[in-house]
Design goal:
The protein has 220 residues and is an alpha/beta fold. Helix content is 48%, strand content 17%. It has a five-stranded parallel β-sheet, with helices on both faces. The longest helix is centred in the C-terminal third of the chain and has 24 residues, at 167-190.
């Protein structure tokens, strides 16, 4: 049986990084819904054009479009052994559609890993980011500061705080995530698939805790 895992966590929790590290350790592909959207939009696929039509109107992309993107990717040969899903599903409806699709292939979700991080820590992590105007290099005022304040070490251009990284914007993003995802967390908890890890530890410690959780709970 293939190994399908889901990584949950609010913005700034590090779930993308952890999904990549876990994927390397387990020999599984990380499937990011955000990456899939960007790929389809860039390549102007049929699904990409359909999604763009909703995005241009300021509307949410319907579940069925997102599900087709994800299941299409999961049908590719390089994920025959399974995958770690990052950013999908976001709602119980998406989770049920995914479960039905996997069931049709004789597969199922083996575990859902949720990174717990306090709102205060998330706001500090994201609002401390600074971005290089010239090339997009990323810094952090606490964790990865530049050698000179507000100046990129690589090309000497100005560093700035993106609108998405401002504390008030971050707080709204967290509220939206919690409103969308709280029902999903309960959905997987009721199925005894949810395992939670303290995401405020150093990144290496989080990776180790995730691996140990899977070894203990899933037998990997």
């Amino acid at each position: 049986m293939a190994m399908y895992l889901i990584m949950l966590g609010p913005p700034g929790s590090g779930k993308g990084t952890q999904a990549k590290e876990l994927g390397k350790a387990l020999g599984l592909r990380q499937i990011s819904s955000g990456d899939l959207f960007r790929e389809h939009l860039k390549n102007q696929t049929e699904l990409g054009r359909l999604a763009k039509g909703f995005l241009d109107q300021g509307a949410l992309v319907p579940d069925d479009v997102t599900i087709k993107m994800v299941t299409g990717r999961l049908s590719m040969p390089d994920v025959a052994k399974g995958a770690i899903l990052d950013g999908f599903p976001r709602t119980p409806a998406q989770a049920e559609a995914l479960a039905k699709w996997l069931e049709g292939r004789g597969e199922r979700i083996r575990a859902v890993l949720n990174l717990r991080v306090s709102d205060a820590a998330l706001i500090r992590r994201i609002s401390g980011r600074r971005t290089c105007r010239a090339s997009g290099h990323i810094y952090h005022v606490d964790f990865h500061p530049p050698a000179r304040d507000e100046v990129c070490d690589v090309d000497g251009s100005e560093l700035y705080q993106r609108d998405d990284d401002r504390p008030e914007t971050v707080a709204r993003r967290i509220e939206v995530y919690q409103a969308q995802t709280a029902p999903l967390i309960e959905y997987y908890r009721r199925q005894d698939l949810l395992f939670e890890v303290d995401g405020e530890q150093p990144a290496e410690a989080v990776t180790k805790a995730l691996q140990e959780t899977l070894e203990r709970m899933v037998g990997l």
